[in-house]
Amino acid sequence: MKKIYFLLSIIVLLGISSCKKTGVIEPPAPVNPVNPPKPYVPDNSFKVIAYFPSYRDPNGVADAKYKMITHLFYAFLNPNIDGSLATLEQPSRFTTVMQKARANGVKTGISVSGTRSIFIEMAASASARKLFVKNVLSFARTNNLDGVDMDWEYPSTADGSADNYVLLMKELSDSLHKYNKFLSAAITPGVYAGSIRDGLKTEVFPSVDFFNIMVYDGIGWDKDEPIQHASYNMAVASLNYWIGTRGMPKERAVLGIPAYGKNSANASKAYRDFVAANADITLDYATIDGIQYYFNGTLTTKKKAKLAKDVANGIMFWEFYHDDNGNKSIIRAANDELGRNYN
Protein backbone atom coordinates (compact mmCIF):
# COMPACT_ATOMS: atom_id res chain seq x y z
CA MET A 1 0.00 0.00 0.00
CA LYS A 2 2.87 2.40 0.88
CA LYS A 3 4.37 1.77 -2.54
CA ILE A 4 1.07 2.76 -4.15
CA TYR A 5 0.93 6.04 -2.15
CA PHE A 6 4.56 6.73 -3.09
CA LEU A 7 3.87 6.23 -6.79
CA LEU A 8 0.77 8.44 -6.66
CA SER A 9 2.80 11.21 -5.00
CA ILE A 10 5.37 11.09 -7.80
CA ILE A 11 2.64 11.32 -10.45
CA VAL A 12 1.07 14.36 -8.75
CA LEU A 13 4.45 16.11 -8.46
CA LEU A 14 5.19 15.48 -12.14
CA GLY A 15 1.79 16.91 -13.08
CA ILE A 16 2.41 20.08 -11.00
CA SER A 17 5.86 20.46 -12.55
CA SER A 18 4.48 20.30 -16.09
CA CYS A 19 1.83 22.92 -15.28
CA LYS A 20 4.47 25.32 -13.99
CA LYS A 21 6.36 25.17 -17.31
CA THR A 22 3.48 26.50 -19.40
CA GLY A 23 1.09 27.98 -16.90
CA VAL A 24 -1.79 25.95 -18.42
CA ILE A 25 -2.41 22.41 -19.46
CA GLU A 26 -2.58 22.39 -23.26
CA PRO A 27 -5.60 20.54 -24.70
CA PRO A 28 -4.87 17.79 -27.17
CA ALA A 29 -4.69 18.91 -30.80
CA PRO A 30 -7.63 17.83 -32.95
CA VAL A 31 -7.03 14.76 -35.02
CA ASN A 32 -7.95 16.46 -38.33
CA PRO A 33 -7.74 20.24 -37.84
CA VAL A 34 -9.68 22.25 -40.43
CA ASN A 35 -8.20 25.62 -41.36
CA PRO A 36 -11.02 28.07 -42.09
CA PRO A 37 -10.64 29.80 -45.47
CA LYS A 38 -9.41 33.37 -45.52
CA PRO A 39 -12.06 36.11 -45.85
CA TYR A 40 -13.04 36.66 -49.47
CA VAL A 41 -11.46 39.68 -51.13
CA PRO A 42 -12.74 40.53 -54.64
CA ASP A 43 -10.23 41.04 -57.44
CA ASN A 44 -10.92 44.49 -58.85
CA SER A 45 -8.04 44.54 -61.31
CA PHE A 46 -8.69 45.18 -65.01
CA LYS A 47 -9.68 41.96 -66.77
CA VAL A 48 -9.08 40.54 -70.24
CA ILE A 49 -11.39 37.54 -70.56
CA ALA A 50 -11.84 34.87 -73.22
CA TYR A 51 -14.23 31.94 -73.54
CA PHE A 52 -13.14 28.56 -74.86
CA PRO A 53 -16.05 26.44 -76.19
CA SER A 54 -15.89 22.66 -75.78
CA TYR A 55 -16.23 22.13 -79.54
CA ARG A 56 -12.89 23.83 -80.27
CA ASP A 57 -9.56 22.05 -80.59
CA PRO A 58 -7.06 23.43 -78.04
CA ASN A 59 -4.34 23.11 -80.69
CA GLY A 60 -6.13 25.80 -82.67
CA VAL A 61 -5.06 28.46 -80.19
CA ALA A 62 -1.39 29.36 -79.95
CA ASP A 63 0.09 28.95 -76.47
CA ALA A 64 1.40 32.52 -76.64
CA LYS A 65 -2.18 33.79 -76.77
CA TYR A 66 -2.76 32.77 -73.15
CA LYS A 67 -0.37 35.49 -72.04
CA MET A 68 -2.77 38.04 -73.53
CA ILE A 69 -5.67 37.24 -71.19
CA THR A 70 -6.28 37.31 -67.44
CA HIS A 71 -9.25 34.92 -67.26
CA LEU A 72 -10.35 31.90 -69.31
CA PHE A 73 -13.81 30.31 -69.14
CA TYR A 74 -14.47 26.85 -70.49
CA ALA A 75 -17.92 26.68 -72.08
CA PHE A 76 -20.19 25.07 -71.08
CA LEU A 77 -21.34 23.12 -68.05
CA ASN A 78 -25.07 22.43 -68.26
CA PRO A 79 -27.57 22.14 -65.38
CA ASN A 80 -30.58 19.86 -65.09
CA ILE A 81 -33.98 20.87 -63.73
CA ASP A 82 -33.37 19.16 -60.38
CA GLY A 83 -30.07 20.98 -59.80
CA SER A 84 -27.82 18.16 -60.92
CA LEU A 85 -25.24 18.76 -63.64
CA ALA A 86 -24.92 17.14 -67.04
CA THR A 87 -21.65 15.44 -67.91
CA LEU A 88 -19.06 17.95 -69.05
CA GLU A 89 -18.46 17.87 -72.79
CA GLN A 90 -14.93 17.13 -73.98
CA PRO A 91 -13.35 16.77 -70.51
CA SER A 92 -9.90 16.14 -71.99
CA ARG A 93 -10.06 19.51 -73.76
CA PHE A 94 -11.17 21.10 -70.52
CA THR A 95 -8.12 19.67 -68.77
CA THR A 96 -5.79 20.81 -71.53
CA VAL A 97 -6.94 24.42 -71.73
CA MET A 98 -7.06 24.77 -67.95
CA GLN A 99 -3.48 23.53 -67.73
CA LYS A 100 -2.37 25.94 -70.44
CA ALA A 101 -4.13 28.81 -68.70
CA ARG A 102 -2.59 28.08 -65.30
CA ALA A 103 0.88 27.70 -66.84
CA ASN A 104 0.53 31.30 -68.04
CA GLY A 105 -0.86 32.77 -64.84
CA VAL A 106 -4.42 32.95 -66.16
CA LYS A 107 -7.36 32.57 -63.78
CA THR A 108 -9.63 29.68 -64.70
CA GLY A 109 -13.37 29.19 -64.57
CA ILE A 110 -16.30 27.18 -65.87
CA SER A 111 -19.19 28.87 -67.65
CA VAL A 112 -22.59 27.42 -66.77
CA SER A 113 -25.17 27.67 -69.52
CA GLY A 114 -28.09 25.76 -70.95
CA THR A 115 -31.71 25.83 -71.96
CA ARG A 116 -33.57 28.83 -70.60
CA SER A 117 -36.56 26.72 -69.53
CA ILE A 118 -34.29 24.53 -67.39
CA PHE A 119 -32.85 27.57 -65.61
CA ILE A 120 -36.34 28.95 -64.98
CA GLU A 121 -37.67 25.74 -63.43
CA MET A 122 -34.49 24.95 -61.49
CA ALA A 123 -34.23 28.44 -59.99
CA ALA A 124 -37.90 28.39 -58.94
CA SER A 125 -37.26 25.47 -56.58
CA ALA A 126 -35.43 26.09 -53.30
CA SER A 127 -34.28 22.46 -53.14
CA ALA A 128 -33.08 22.46 -56.77
CA ARG A 129 -31.19 25.73 -56.22
CA LYS A 130 -29.53 24.26 -53.15
CA LEU A 131 -28.44 21.14 -55.03
CA PHE A 132 -27.26 23.19 -58.01
CA VAL A 133 -25.14 25.45 -55.80
CA LYS A 134 -23.67 22.43 -54.02
CA ASN A 135 -22.80 20.73 -57.32
CA VAL A 136 -21.30 23.81 -58.95
CA LEU A 137 -19.15 24.52 -55.90
CA SER A 138 -18.03 20.89 -55.85
CA PHE A 139 -17.09 21.07 -59.54
CA ALA A 140 -15.09 24.27 -59.00
CA ARG A 141 -13.28 22.87 -55.97
CA THR A 142 -12.59 19.46 -57.49
CA ASN A 143 -11.09 21.05 -60.60
CA ASN A 144 -9.19 23.74 -58.68
CA LEU A 145 -10.95 26.57 -60.54
CA ASP A 146 -10.74 30.21 -59.54
CA GLY A 147 -14.40 30.90 -60.20
CA VAL A 148 -17.67 30.32 -62.00
CA ASP A 149 -19.46 32.22 -64.76
CA MET A 150 -23.25 32.08 -65.07
CA ASP A 151 -24.59 32.39 -68.61
CA TRP A 152 -28.36 32.29 -68.17
CA GLU A 153 -29.83 33.93 -71.27
CA TYR A 154 -31.95 35.47 -69.85
CA PRO A 155 -33.96 35.96 -66.66
CA SER A 156 -37.05 38.06 -67.32
CA THR A 157 -39.65 40.10 -65.47
CA ALA A 158 -42.31 38.66 -67.77
CA ASP A 159 -42.22 35.16 -66.26
CA GLY A 160 -41.10 35.76 -62.68
CA SER A 161 -37.64 34.34 -63.24
CA ALA A 162 -35.94 37.66 -62.44
CA ASP A 163 -36.60 37.31 -58.71
CA ASN A 164 -35.43 33.70 -58.69
CA TYR A 165 -32.29 34.72 -60.54
CA VAL A 166 -31.49 37.09 -57.67
CA LEU A 167 -31.98 34.26 -55.16
CA LEU A 168 -29.89 31.82 -57.17
CA MET A 169 -26.99 34.22 -57.66
CA LYS A 170 -26.99 35.26 -54.00
CA GLU A 171 -26.86 31.62 -52.86
CA LEU A 172 -24.19 30.74 -55.41
CA SER A 173 -22.12 33.80 -54.56
CA ASP A 174 -22.25 33.11 -50.81
CA SER A 175 -21.17 29.52 -51.40
CA LEU A 176 -18.29 30.31 -53.79
CA HIS A 177 -16.99 33.23 -51.76
CA LYS A 178 -16.62 31.02 -48.69
CA TYR A 179 -13.91 29.21 -50.66
CA ASN A 180 -12.43 32.35 -52.20
CA LYS A 181 -13.86 31.70 -55.64
CA PHE A 182 -15.38 34.47 -57.76
CA LEU A 183 -18.76 34.59 -59.47
CA SER A 184 -19.30 36.35 -62.80
CA ALA A 185 -22.32 36.58 -65.09
CA ALA A 186 -22.80 36.98 -68.82
CA ILE A 187 -25.57 39.52 -69.39
CA THR A 188 -27.56 41.32 -72.08
CA PRO A 189 -26.09 44.53 -73.56
CA GLY A 190 -29.07 46.39 -72.14
CA VAL A 191 -29.64 48.51 -75.25
CA TYR A 192 -33.09 47.05 -75.87
CA ALA A 193 -35.82 48.08 -73.42
CA GLY A 194 -38.14 45.40 -72.09
CA SER A 195 -38.56 42.45 -69.76
CA ILE A 196 -35.16 40.92 -70.59
CA ARG A 197 -33.22 44.06 -69.73
CA ASP A 198 -35.34 44.58 -66.62
CA GLY A 199 -34.79 40.93 -65.73
CA LEU A 200 -31.34 41.74 -64.42
CA LYS A 201 -32.37 43.44 -61.21
CA THR A 202 -30.14 45.88 -59.38
CA GLU A 203 -30.41 43.63 -56.30
CA VAL A 204 -28.09 41.13 -57.97
CA PHE A 205 -25.20 43.58 -58.36
CA PRO A 206 -23.65 42.98 -54.91
CA SER A 207 -23.59 39.19 -55.41
CA VAL A 208 -21.62 39.14 -58.67
CA ASP A 209 -17.92 40.02 -58.87
CA PHE A 210 -18.10 41.14 -62.49
CA PHE A 211 -20.54 41.15 -65.39
CA ASN A 212 -19.51 40.10 -68.90
CA ILE A 213 -21.71 42.39 -71.00
CA MET A 214 -22.40 40.75 -74.37
CA VAL A 215 -22.34 43.83 -76.61
CA TYR A 216 -22.76 42.06 -79.94
CA ASP A 217 -25.35 40.30 -82.15
CA GLY A 218 -27.17 43.64 -82.50
CA ILE A 219 -27.76 43.92 -86.24
CA GLY A 220 -30.01 46.92 -86.94
CA TRP A 221 -29.50 48.66 -83.61
CA ASP A 222 -27.10 51.32 -84.89
CA LYS A 223 -28.89 53.26 -87.62
CA ASP A 224 -25.56 54.65 -88.82
CA GLU A 225 -24.20 51.11 -89.31
CA PRO A 226 -27.32 48.95 -89.74
CA ILE A 227 -25.51 45.70 -90.62
CA GLN A 228 -22.78 46.11 -88.01
CA HIS A 229 -23.75 43.81 -85.15
CA ALA A 230 -21.33 45.32 -82.61
CA SER A 231 -20.67 48.97 -83.31
CA TYR A 232 -18.65 51.27 -81.12
CA ASN A 233 -21.79 53.35 -80.51
CA MET A 234 -23.51 50.25 -79.17
CA ALA A 235 -20.66 49.69 -76.71
CA VAL A 236 -20.95 53.28 -75.49
CA ALA A 237 -24.73 52.99 -75.09
CA SER A 238 -24.43 49.68 -73.23
CA LEU A 239 -21.93 50.95 -70.67
CA ASN A 240 -23.88 54.19 -70.28
CA TYR A 241 -26.97 52.16 -69.44
CA TRP A 242 -25.49 49.65 -67.00
CA ILE A 243 -23.08 51.99 -65.23
CA GLY A 244 -24.77 55.36 -65.67
CA THR A 245 -28.48 54.58 -65.63
CA ARG A 246 -28.58 51.40 -63.56
CA GLY A 247 -25.70 52.17 -61.20
CA MET A 248 -23.61 49.06 -61.78
CA PRO A 249 -20.25 49.67 -60.05
CA LYS A 250 -17.68 50.34 -62.78
CA GLU A 251 -15.27 47.81 -61.25
CA ARG A 252 -17.84 45.09 -62.03
CA ALA A 253 -18.47 46.04 -65.66
CA VAL A 254 -16.64 44.13 -68.42
CA LEU A 255 -17.20 45.10 -72.06
CA GLY A 256 -17.80 42.21 -74.43
CA ILE A 257 -16.10 42.36 -77.86
CA PRO A 258 -16.87 39.86 -80.65
CA ALA A 259 -14.06 37.98 -82.36
CA TYR A 260 -16.36 37.27 -85.28
CA GLY A 261 -18.36 39.11 -87.91
CA LYS A 262 -21.85 38.83 -89.36
CA ASN A 263 -23.54 39.51 -92.68
CA SER A 264 -27.02 40.88 -93.40
CA ALA A 265 -28.47 37.37 -93.17
CA ASN A 266 -27.06 37.08 -89.61
CA ALA A 267 -24.57 34.39 -90.67
CA SER A 268 -21.20 34.44 -88.88
CA LYS A 269 -17.53 34.12 -89.76
CA ALA A 270 -14.58 34.05 -87.39
CA TYR A 271 -12.21 37.01 -87.32
CA ARG A 272 -9.37 34.64 -88.27
CA ASP A 273 -11.25 33.98 -91.54
CA PHE A 274 -10.98 37.64 -92.48
CA VAL A 275 -7.26 37.56 -91.77
CA ALA A 276 -6.89 34.41 -93.88
CA ALA A 277 -8.75 36.15 -96.72
CA ASN A 278 -6.19 39.01 -96.62
CA ALA A 279 -8.87 41.53 -95.67
CA ASP A 280 -7.86 44.94 -94.39
CA ILE A 281 -8.35 44.21 -90.69
CA THR A 282 -8.01 47.88 -89.74
CA LEU A 283 -11.51 48.21 -91.21
CA ASP A 284 -14.74 46.75 -89.82
CA TYR A 285 -15.95 44.99 -92.96
CA ALA A 286 -14.74 42.52 -95.55
CA THR A 287 -16.10 40.66 -98.56
CA ILE A 288 -15.66 36.89 -98.72
CA ASP A 289 -17.10 34.87 -101.63
CA GLY A 290 -19.08 37.91 -102.71
CA ILE A 291 -20.73 38.42 -99.30
CA GLN A 292 -19.96 41.39 -97.10
CA TYR A 293 -19.40 40.83 -93.38
CA TYR A 294 -19.11 43.35 -90.60
CA PHE A 295 -16.82 42.77 -87.64
CA ASN A 296 -14.60 44.66 -85.20
CA GLY A 297 -11.21 45.30 -86.75
CA THR A 298 -8.06 46.27 -84.90
CA LEU A 299 -8.84 50.00 -84.75
CA THR A 300 -12.37 49.55 -83.37
CA THR A 301 -11.12 46.92 -80.94
CA LYS A 302 -8.52 49.37 -79.66
CA LYS A 303 -11.18 52.07 -79.29
CA LYS A 304 -13.34 49.70 -77.29
CA ALA A 305 -10.41 48.65 -75.10
CA LYS A 306 -9.73 52.32 -74.32
CA LEU A 307 -13.42 52.90 -73.61
CA ALA A 308 -13.45 49.99 -71.19
CA LYS A 309 -10.28 51.22 -69.50
CA ASP A 310 -11.75 54.71 -69.11
CA VAL A 311 -15.23 53.87 -67.83
CA ALA A 312 -15.37 50.15 -66.97
CA ASN A 313 -12.97 47.49 -65.68
CA GLY A 314 -12.33 44.90 -68.34
CA ILE A 315 -12.92 43.46 -71.79
CA MET A 316 -14.21 40.03 -72.81
CA PHE A 317 -13.93 38.12 -76.09
CA TRP A 318 -16.26 35.53 -77.52
CA GLU A 319 -14.41 33.49 -78.34
CA PHE A 320 -10.74 32.54 -78.00
CA TYR A 321 -10.45 30.31 -81.09
CA HIS A 322 -12.09 32.90 -83.40
CA ASP A 323 -9.13 35.25 -83.06
CA ASP A 324 -6.05 35.11 -85.28
CA ASN A 325 -2.91 33.56 -83.78
CA GLY A 326 -0.51 35.96 -85.50
CA ASN A 327 0.36 39.64 -85.19
CA LYS A 328 -3.05 40.65 -86.58
CA SER A 329 -4.82 39.29 -83.50
CA ILE A 330 -7.48 41.64 -82.10
CA ILE A 331 -6.76 40.42 -78.57
CA ARG A 332 -3.17 41.45 -79.19
CA ALA A 333 -4.37 44.83 -80.51
CA ALA A 334 -6.41 45.33 -77.34
CA ASN A 335 -3.41 44.49 -75.17
CA ASP A 336 -1.28 46.98 -77.09
CA GLU A 337 -3.87 49.69 -76.50
CA LEU A 338 -4.01 48.81 -72.80
CA GLY A 339 -0.22 48.76 -72.52
CA ARG A 340 -0.20 45.18 -71.21
CA ASN A 341 2.94 43.06 -71.51
CA TYR A 342 2.20 39.67 -73.08
CA ASN A 343 5.73 38.44 -73.78
TrEMBL record:
This is chitinase. The keyword Signal applies. SUPFAM superfamilies: (Trans)glycosidases (SSF51445). Its EC number is 3.2.1.14. Pfam families: Glyco_hydro_18. It catalyses: Random endo-hydrolysis of N-acetyl-beta-D-glucosaminide (1->4)-beta-linkages in chitin and chitodextrins. Keywords: Glycosidase, Hydrolase, Signal. The keyword Transcription does not apply. One of its GO terms (molecular function) is endochitinase activity. Residues 46-341 form the GH18 domain. The lineage of its organism: Bacteria, Pseudomonadati, Bacteroidota, Sphingobacteriia, Sphingobacteriales. GO terms for cellular component: extracellular region. One of its GO terms (biological process) is chitin catabolic process. InterPro entries: Chitinase_II/V-like_cat, GH, Glyco_hydro18_cat, Glyco_hydro_18_chit_AS, Glycosyl_Hydrlase_18. Residues 1-21 form the signal peptide. Belongs to the glycosyl hydrolase 18 family. Coiled coil: none annotated.
